[in-house]
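G., the chain you wanted modeled:
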Amino acid sequence: MAKTTLDPKFLPLLEGRRIASLGTLNEDGSPHLTAVWYLYQDGCFFVATSSRSRKARNLAARPKATLMVEARKPGSERGVTATGPVEIISGERSHEFNARIYRRYLSAAAIVDPQVGGVFAKLDDITLKLRPRVWTWWDMPELDAMYFGGRFGSTPGYLLPQEL
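Predicted structure as tokens:
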């Protein structure tokens, strides 16, 4: 069920360091999905990217997106999707947000390496700010308890391991 506010129990999931999936719409109406690093702050998602990327071009034309964050440990899968308008931030404010995003995912050594941190800083010249208007989420342990009597969490071998 879609909600206009996020259940607070999912904040640790969003504040963790995970890879999110960002969905935008191509010109022909087909979805464009891409894996992204993100920062969740003050109820919004921030994503560093290049103004030349497909996602940036799609959002310049159609400024609405969906972002999904999930945890995939078998038996304890949980996830959140957030849909809403997207603002494109540029200039110094973008550089500040992007630097914060890089610090979430890169070591200090990688950030100061000109062939890593320096390349990201040159490529990613904008920040996408998604302000969620609609939230949806799922929690496999809750669904397991509600519909399957806890069998997935308590019966070894019911869920097969995911391939890495």
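The chain has one domain: 8-148.

Shout if anything looks off.
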